[in-house]
Design goal:
The chain is mainly alpha-helical. It has 14 helices and 6 strands. Strands 1-6 form a two-stranded antiparallel sheet. The protein is globular. The chain starts with 46 loop residues before the first helix and ends in a 19-residue tail after the last helix. 28% of the residues are buried. One of its GO terms (molecular function) is calcium ion binding. Residues 1-24 form the signal peptide. Belongs to the CREC family. Its main location: endoplasmic reticulum.
């Protein structure tokens, strides 16, 4: 992981999916909407750019194409991004495109798992349905979870999920509509869920449970110095970032307000930052906008192919973008 100046993108990794209609045996998952897991400079090659520009699944499908096919499909996407059909892509047009891609990914993600949780098919997901689908196996077969780490994980995750669910459930009926369930799965996208994102981040990083994140805890969340050698340069830089920019009141630790400033900065628009980055890296004539030729000349920043091969085989209708 590299430090300073990185673009933050929140990503919720949902790996606790049940067997549809039954008591799926749960497996551990990353339950925090976690900042820093997708810092731009750390992703292999242009992976972050591909996922921001296309969405995760579409990026994986491009990874299975030949370079020629990738360029051809990218050209068609460029035409769709060019809203005013003037032959140029502006930063604003790219920003709007990236926001649409992110929104589509979120709602498609919810649609994929909806049927697994809406067990009685009433077009709502009750907390009891979610708990049964996700934790039913654990609750009915506790003897299979004798490992102390497993027990700790599931005992921690269940009340944590319940707290998040109840926060997303705005009408308090313990049954989530699609919008409420979207807020549950993607809390970073909803204003009323921000306190949950901050609290979960604090709970995960605050190992001494004093209600704060000190510099060592902050670094430990990114880097484990298992070999005991000198810290790499990026870790030293990240320590400086903590002192200079994270610890705003200079008391040696981050409180909840400082954590929110770190992971959910009010003055930061990741879509705009990515759009500016794409224009800067591809704008050969420096006129602050991109022609189709400039995009295609730098195609591997926008999309992948078999030559870059980051993903697995996934197919989808590209016209849905």
């Amino acid at each position: 992981m590299a430090g300073g100046g990185a673009r933050w993108r929140l990503a919720l990794v949902l790996a606790l999916l049940p067997v549809p209609g039954g008591l799926g045996k749960p497996t551990a998952r990353q339950e925090r909407a976690r900042p820093g897991a997708a810092q731009h400079e750390d992703r292999p090659g242009f992976q972050y750019d591909h996922e921001a520009f296309l969405g995760k699944e579409e990026a994986r499908s491009f990874d299975q194409l030949s370079p020629e096919e990738s360029r051809d499909r990218l050209g068609k996407i460029v035409d769709r991004i060019d809203d005013n059909k003037d032959g140029y892509l502006t930063t604003e047009e790219l920003k709007n495109w990236i926001k649409r891609v992110q929104k589509r990914y979120i709602y498609e993600n919810v649609a994929k798992v909806w049927k697994d949780y809406d067990l009685n098919k009433d077009n709502k997901i009750a907390w009891e349905e979610y708990k049964q689908a996700t934790y039913g196996y654990y609750l009915e077969n506790p003897e299979e979870f004798q490992d102390a780490t497993d027990q700790h994980s599931f005992k921690k995750m269940l009340p944590r999920d319940e707290r998040r669910f109840k926060t997303a459930d705005l009408d308090g009926d313990l049954a989530a509509t699609r919008e409420e369930f979207t807020a549950f799965l993607h809390p970073e996208e909803f204003e009323h869920m921000k306190n949950i994102v901050v609290l979960e981040t604090l709970e995960d990083i605050d190992k001494n449970e004093d209600g704060f994140v000190d510099q060592d805890e902050y670094i430990a969340d990114m880097f484990a110095n298992e070999e005991g050698g000198p810290e790499p340069d990026w870790v030293i830089t990240e320590r400086e970032q903590f002192s200079d920019f994270r610890d705003l009141n200079k008391d040696g630790k981050m409180d909840k307000e400082e954590i929110q400033h770190w992971i959910l900065p009010q003055d930061y628009d990741h879509a705009l930052a990515e759009a500016r980055h794409l224009v800067y890296e591809s704008d050969v004539d420096k006129d602050q906008k991109l022609t189709k030729e400039e995009v295609l000349d730098n195609w591997n920043m926008f999309v992948g192919s078999q030559a870059t091969n980051y993903g697995e085989d996934l197919t989808r209708n590209h016209d849905e973008l």
